[in-house]
Design goal:
Strand content: 15-25%
Distance between the termini: 23 Å
Structural class: alpha/beta
Number of domains: 2
Number of strands: 17
CATH superfamily of the largest domain: NAD(P)-binding Rossmann-like Domain
Helix content: 25-40%
Radius of gyration: 22 Å
Number of helices: 14
CATH class of the largest domain: Alpha Beta
Strand order of the largest sheet: 14-13-9-12-11-10-17
CATH architecture of the largest domain: 3-Layer(aba) Sandwich
Length: 455
Amino acid sequence: MQKKQSERVMREPDPFSMNELIKSNPVFSRRQMLGITGIAGLAALTGISTEAAGQSQQRKPRIAVLATFWGATRSHADWLVNKLIDGYWWQGAYVPSRVEVVSLYLHQHDTSLLGQKVAKAKGIQVYRTASEALTLGTKELAVDGVVIVGEHGDYPTDLKGHWLLPRWWLYNHVIRVFEQSKRSVPVFNDKHFSYNWDDAKWMFDKSRELGFPLTGGSLLPVYYRKPEIELENNTPIKHSIVVGATPDEGAIFHCIELLQAFVERRKGGETGVKSIQSIRGPEAWKWVESNSWAAKLLNSVAANFKLKQGHFQESGRTNICIIEYNDGTSAAIIGGQGVGWTYAGEIEGRKEPTIVSLLDFPGPFDQYHASNAQPHWIVEMMLTKKEPFNAERLLLTTGITNHYMESNWEGSKYSPVGRRIETPFLNMTYRPTRGAQFNKGQRPPARPYIRGFDQ
């Protein structure tokens, strides 16, 4: 374990000069770049809100990161935290970092050698406890924001398939510091709140009780789309599906988040979920065949990708999550390969389904699978102190995921045709308040890692 430093080492200046910024933004000429001055110019170049750009001229918000594991370039901590340190690619342009990562806690410290190495190169203190990372070794909260990356690491999976990641445990340490310090700051929680519904509800409720902005979830709702469209609020959506990889809890959560990002824009806004059911294996296709709206939407996805009818059913096995909303809207997640993650919606008054796809991970691997939009919205929340998305959405998608995992089980007895679970507690109601929030434009170019050491 590293010893505490008596003084925090100053981080290196950002390696991107104006020349490099111009190269990464071919749309702008040098003359145009030189003509962009002041806060309004920065906002025009990067797509950052003027309010946030103005605040970035002041002291950068100091961020504490609590991560379960940072030992591989494929870990979420590596994707997210490096972008908070070094900047990210947003709307076709490189955006320098507007926050300062000042502390790091690694739950599985001994196997998180990459995170330790990055921290040492960047002058970031690694603390032995989560609380110390928030207080910077003092007795009170000493940071302006908290990022929890409770994803990856050597953690067990229970009988029902829940991955027992300690997100609630990390979050609980944050709440303790907030309550002891009698103040709170914005919090980001990667993926769903918790594998346990009661813990997840407590996490959401604490954010409302203490009055701090809270966000998190999947990167898919803000990922590149084809076509680059967003549904308008009050769109009369009747039925929806998402087709994508659904082999486990973490994967189906991504699909559920993507689905919710579309269906919450339906007429009347979000009304909450009435019931959830899971069906796995060959029986799942029987459900699709007996529900004409689902079969029609699935066939439209196959046609959109020029696949033969019955393409998805050829696998023989799949797993689906059936969601009935309180207002009568129906939706399903259907496991399927070859179409990335694809949303298809039946909208009243439109002859053909609306289909929007997220295909692969554009950009070179050195861009950490191009997960740039999520760090952008993390930073925006830290600067503006406002939630970029309704935190109710993350609570709702967490609840859908939790009860999808429970549906196939009655005590210790498993059934591939899961029971239909009534969910009166998932009665979240809200309306999205923003327009399109997904990344657009030119994909990020290849560039070396900016870690302060060779790969």
